[in-house]
User: What shape does this take?
Amino acid sequence: MTRKSDSTSIDTVAVHAARPVDPGTGAVTPAITLSTTFVRDADGSYPHGFNYTRDDNPNRAALEHGLARLEGADAAVMFASGSAATLAVFQTAAAQGDIIATDAAYHGTLRQLRELVPQLGARVRFVDTTSLDAVRAALSEPAALLFVETPSNPLLDISDIAALAGLAAARGTVLACDNTFATPVLQSPLELGADLVIHSGTKYLGGHSDLLSGAVAGRASTWMEQIRMLRSATGAAPSPFDCWLLQRSLPTLPLRVRKQSATALQIATRLTDHPALETVLYPGLPGHRGHAIARAQMRGFGGMLSIQVRGDAAAAMGVAARVELFTRATSLGGVESLIEHRASIEGPGTKTPQNLLRLSVGLEDAAELIDDLEAALSAV
Ligand SMILES: *Cc1c(COP(=O)(O)O)cnc(C)c1O
Assistant: This one.
């Protein structure tokens, strides 16, 4: 007989691990605990384990327990956004040494590495983490942290987590992996040897484009302790309501992500060799340069793909202007399909090609989404 607390199936864990039945009331669905402060006993102790919501809160604690289970971690620390989570990891690293970071990542993460981390006195060395030779060379100088994002936003580059973990461990460097695009449903970086997993919970974990949050998960370590301390000290904590929304979202995470991933593969396959496109970037395509690694380390290729339209920024914008089912908006991982011209939101200096559109595939009918894109592309 499988008990809720020891299931190893991600479907079961997603339903139960962040949503315990309330022992006080018997409520099956968690209540939202808005109180910022918690009663002390006469002897000064905290009988329920909570003290002040910046430090800890029942909704957040349950969520952290659930996310840790999903990622195979000892602990998770929830943040107010994915950006707050990455910064806490970089702050922790900066106090100890250099950061070696992928040059293909979410543009807000790259901005932190370029503009904020140097202010903390740490050196950031950017490398192409799809090249093990480049990473090996970078690691010949000591570094506190190796940071990777795979699949990467928005180029869908794939880095080999197990190989990078081996290189980093041999030099005493901590490996952190942004798992936002893959989610714990499709990829388990800690199992592959990474030390820390980072999420923008705003995306697939939330799944409904209605909350901001972030997370760091890992084994029990001084890094995790420092990251939790930084969350309390900087106040980068998510609200009880956002945590409650996440408690409500996690049970459907596996269903949503598997369907989004299956539809994205259908779309990418159908658009391959489309005359209006220069290329389709999706790790599930056999022609993608990271396909073999993605097959080995992922359980599906995710709901994100990018297309490069033949022509310039205006040609790409034109395609985005003509779609009907896809909504023109930034962000990703929600139930609705989104399309976005990335270079214009990332701004000057971006490496994202001007003709690139990033697609976040939602839960709509796959054939209708394909029809929508083909109609928009037929006018290129
Ligand atoms: C959106 C995103 C982030 C930043 O998360 P926010 O919740 O917007 O702060 C970090 N990494 C990746 C891969 C993202 O897509």
User: Anything to note?
Assistant: The pocket of pyridoxal-5'-phosphate is lined by residues 81-83, 106, 108-109, 149, 153, 178, 180-181, 200, 202-203, 212, 214 (CB under 6 Å). Residues 148 and 177 are 5 Å apart (CA to CA). The radius of gyration is 21 Å.
